[in-house]
């Protein structure tokens, strides 16, 4: 059936909003808002069943919204506090140990590698300071972007909670365009939920395999690494950052492995490279299954979005493609 002018307008507005979100670097706000909204949408009906009346349901939704925001904030604070203040295996101890490992690299790494590295910790500090002085503008820009991203996440989460509460109190829209836009939002929300489930499976598999390697395979081979729990926590936290997150976690694991032997560092590097290469295809397969798409379709979507928008394009590709396919299926075009 041919779409009406109002439906066509709602499609164009939805596309403009999504592309504008990427162009204006508001992806973090969008995802934070959708995640909070989805959690509230799933949990609020369970609490609302205990109450009767529209006002009670609105109050139940507001309570769930407050609990979700508080729980997410408390969880993040507790995890960061543990990493920062651990007596023997916290983040400061991990960074200090990494500095010692790099400082003593001559004892474990081959000569053809160490001769290209700074000879001591002091030389590393000098090199870092020199680089920071030469790239001070870029460093300030990165710091500013991190701060802006955190603010976007907070605002996005608050907006998601506010929209969820208001949605439970508003009467259904009767005007055509408003109704059509609500339909677009509902389809996008469903697509986002499907992708979140898929991403949760991928994250669980990635963390589990890394944990098996660090806590089982290496000890079975006689290699015992320190800071295993902290490294897994770092992997879990930075794993939400596409590409950069993998680089950070891989560097930490490989450097700590180098404290034992060059062979352990090389084995860790090979394992992590194979894991993340396999994760790319696993991601396409799992997410494709969640949205009823083939793996190659999801890979192609990631490739196109990365070429168009860079790293943010990879992050939004599964959600945007899931939404596009859902709309096409609703229109019986695929």
UniProtKB/TrEMBL annotation:
Keywords: Membrane, Transmembrane, Transmembrane helix
Signal peptide bounds: none
Coiled-coil portions: none
Transmembrane feature ranges: 12-37, 58-81, 146-165, 202-221, 227-245, 252-275, 295-323
Protein name from the UniProt record: AI-2E family transporter
Organism name: Candidatus Dechloromonas phosphorivorans
